[in-house]
Specification:
Blueprint (H helix, E strand, L loop, with lengths): L1 E5 L20 E2 L2 E2 H11 L4 E6 L4 H6 L4 E2 L2 E7 L5 H12 L6 E5 L2 E3 L3 H11 L3 E7 L7 E5 L5 E6 L10 E9 L15 H11 L3 E5 L4 E3 L3 H12 L16 E2 L4 E3 L2 E2 L4 E2 L4 E3 L2 E2 L4 E2 L4 E3 L2 E2 L2 E2 L4 E3 L2 E2 L4 E2 L4 E3 L2 E2 L4
Parallel strand pairs: 1-4, 1-7, 4-6, 9-13, 15-18, 16-19, 17-20, 18-21, 19-22, 20-23, 21-24, 22-25, 23-26, 24-27, 25-28, 26-29
Antiparallel strand pairs: 2-3, 5-6, 7-12, 8-14, 9-12, 10-11
Helix pairs in contact: 3-5
This protein binds guanosine-5'-triphosphate.
């Protein structure tokens, strides 16, 4: 079975990390997010993945030079200009000649969903499109569904005003589509699958939901990106885990590092304290610096303090400086 994976967005909410690395190529548990996602699709029966590319396509092609990720065959569909989620799905599916039932996934969703279960539910309902749904406490920032007892979606509302949500069940970013969904997407223009297409399929009575309580995180915002990493360390995931230090991480024995992942080639010097953080490949934490609840790709100088901050590849915290609740370099 084919899957289209959406990986062409700008990833603005993870800036400045995404200034140099596109979001789905950022590591989660020392592996690119996209590699973990493709591994899960493969466990659910996907054999071919079409990467719907736009912003910064090169890092994807360089990461998988032989056109495979594990046993999965990769196809690259590079949009001439951003077509938004619906336009990108149409462009990628036509590029790969998809004319049968297929899976779609957002490139920044980390979940334990069994894709084979989603496909089976889709077929059982004779659906045109089936959405993976997750229950959350505050659904207002997501696409929210009103689900009938037979599993059909009566209504799909993208980001409803707080208090007007029809339920707490949200679109969790993995779908199964019949090829006929492609006919509902106008050609060569920006189309949102969430705002422009799901309501149409729901009105036709052909949109279904598949609700599970699997582990699920949208890793596209800083706190959840950090959580997606730390959850692999603490054993919260059903089928996946990660070690704290990647092979090639350089951590001085005199450093105190807890609940933190340290990527390949990152260097943590003596006397430092690093807590609840993700230290990305190439980062440097100099002597006696303290880092807490942060994402670091750049350099933290000696005796500096960094709390709840994001330091991109070009970010340098000077020795003795204090940085809290900030990004470096600053966002415009
Ligand atoms: P933000 O800028 O932080 O909102 O991130 P984003 O650009 O990734 O957008 P969002 O998280 O809403 O997008 C969901 C998924 O769709 C992500 O996996 C994106 O990579 C992808 N995506 C969004 N817009 C486009 C697009 O125009 N083309 C392609 N190919 N993918 C897109």
């Amino acid at each position: 079975m084919h899957a289209v994976v959406l990986v062409g967005g700008f990833g603005t909410r993870l800036r400045p990390l995404t200034n140099t690395i596109p979001k789905p190529m950022l590591p989660v548990g020392h592996e690119p997010m996209i590699a973990r996602l493709i591994g899960r699709l493969a466990r659910g029966g996907v054999t071919d993945v079409v990467l719907a590319l736009g912003f910064k396509p090169e890092p994807f092609m360089e990461a998988f030079p032989d056109g495979r990720c594990g046993d999965v065959v990769l196809h690259y569909a590079v949009e001439p200009e951003p077509l938004d989620t619906g336009g990108a799905i149409r462009f990628a599916a036509l590029h790969a000649g998809i004319d049968d039932t297929f899976v779609v996934a957002n490139g920044d969703v980390m979940t334990d969903l069994d894709v084979a279960g989603l496909v089976a539910a889709h077929r059982r309902h004779g659906a045109e499109a089936t959405l993976h749904l997750i229950g959350v406490d505050d659904p207002s920032a997501f696409g929210v569904v009103d689900l009938a007892d037979d599993g059909s979606v009566r209504q799909f509302v993208e980001k409803p005003a707080r208090g007007t949500e029809p339920s707490n069940l949200i679109n969790a970013g993995t779908y199964v589509f019949e090829a006929s969904v492609l006919d509902r997407i106008p050609a060569e223009q920006r189309v949102s699958i969430e705002r422009d297409v799901f309501p149409l399929v729901a009105d036709a009575g052909r949109l279904f939901g598949y609700s599970t309580d699997d582990y699920w995180i949208d890793a596209g915002v800083p706190d959840f990106y950090r959580a997606a990493n730390l959850d692999l360390l603490s054993g919260k995931r059903a089928h996946e885990s990660a070690e704290a230090f990647a092979p090639g991480a350089i951590v001085d024995p005199q450093a105190t590092v807890s609940n933190t992942l340290v990527g390949a080639g990152a260097r943590i010097a003596a006397g430092t304290t690093v807590v609840d953080s993700v230290i990305l490949p190439g980062a440097v934490i100099e002597e006696r610096a303290q880092v807490e609840s942060s994402l670091v790709m750049g350099r933290v100088g000696a005796d500096a303090t960094v709390i709840e901050s994001i330091i991109g590849a070009d970010g340098v915290v000077a020795a003795d400086d204090h940085l809290a609740y900030s990004t470096l370099p600053d966002l415009d």
